[in-house]
Amino acid sequence: MRSNWFKFSPPQILVLGFAAIILFGSFLLMLPISSVTGQTLPWIDAFFTATSATCVTGLVVVDTGTYFSTFGQVVIMLLIQVGGLGFMTMATLFSLVFKRKISLKDRLLLQEAMNQNTMEGIVRLIRKVLLYSLIIESGAALVFAIRWAFDMPLGRAIYYGIFHGVSMFNNAGFDLFGEYRSLTQYVNDPIVNFVAMFLIVSGGIGFIVLSDLIEFRSRRKFSLHTKVVLSMTGALIVIGAVVIFVFEFTNPRTLEPLGWGGKFWASFFQSVTPRTAGANTLDIGALRQATQFFIIILMFIGASPSSTGGGIKTTTFTILVGAVISMIRGRSDLVLFRYRLAQERIFKAVTITMLALFLVIAVAMVLSTTEDASFLSILFETTSAFSTVGLTMGLTGKLTVLGKILISFTMFAGRLGPLTLAYALGPKKGKELYRHPEGKMIIG
């Protein structure tokens, strides 16, 4: 059995591993003990929920806070934790606890799962991932619990703090407030807004960047990756907040009724959450179409590599923008922060973006024939699923069976990444031993 397992490539093992977790989670959510009423959740709804949790998306077809029992909610929280950190990270945790040796195959899997270029220091990185996650989630859970203790019994406040700490840090977007409200009742609350945004950004910038930030005192230097991630993440959040503030300022269903403080927090929160978090403090369906389309763009870009988020990633978007600017300026090299990037990085960024575009467009076209909704709503839902965001304009609960299957597949592909999925379905071939003659072609 072990020899057969070793025949699979790392991308194939990741695909099979996530699929196994989703199927097991679906089985647990179908149990009568998982629902408040003791009813059995239909298989397609259990499968959709398990996929959404494992792929840290947050799209739901049944209300998490009112339908599921405490057992069901804990199952969802564990699926979020395993899916956010990666099942290989969790497996490594057990190996470290029981002092088992991390094999070469395991290190290759970890390298693939964490999107690293080398195996060097991979186990040390996993230790940091586990430690940082525990500290950040625990700290946020404590603050949430103290804040919500003013609104609910202490025991419930602690439970809510833990659940939402895990959900927000892993960019999942699941909530327990019921009636699909998410955090809309806390749109003016600075504590809930700040802690939630801190969790979303911390989980979305990636563990490599977190490590660089924490160790900056000793190193006094950031890597190129960290500089790109921080600068692009900051730019997207600020630009997004300004655009949302301007577009929604006079919207009577969103920002207009709020005071200046509420407008500030709501604009920034709706700009941060497309980092693939899925929580919201404004009714997404009530936003103007221009704002909704702008959020689609933010969702498609998504979070950063080696993080709990999805999308094409901020680094990919930076490379694309940089390549365009370099071409316009007539430069042959792409230079970021005085470092020249290899052409291989540019080709990979273009490949990831084109595969993502193809997937989103194809799924949206099929859904436009199976679902009774506007195309903007369908495109929003599809992009949200691919980028594992979890925001919706209200379509999720109305999906047909085929629609649920398609969105589930899109969430799965988005969590693993289109390139990893492509490698799993068609493994990379060996290095070519020859080059074809160069050809000329007119472009533009």
Automatic annotation (TrEMBL):
Keywords, A to Z?
Answer: Cell membrane, Ion transport, Membrane, Potassium, Potassium transport, Transmembrane, Transmembrane helix, Transport
- Gene Ontology MF term list: potassium:chloride symporter activity
Q: Where in the cell is it found?
A: Cell membrane
The record's annotation in InterPro entries points to:
Cat_transpt, TrkH
**Domain of life of the organism encoding this protein:** Bacteria
Quote a single Gene Ontology cellular component term: plasma membrane
Q: Does the keyword Cell membrane apply?
A: yes
First-listed, main subcellular location of the protein, grouped into a coarse class: membrane
Its placement in the membrane is given as: Multi-pass membrane protein
Segments passing through the bilayer: 12-31, 74-98, 129-150, 191-216, 228-247, 293-325, 346-367, 405-425
- What is the designated name of this protein? Trk family potassium uptake protein
* Organism, as annotated: Paenibacillus faecis
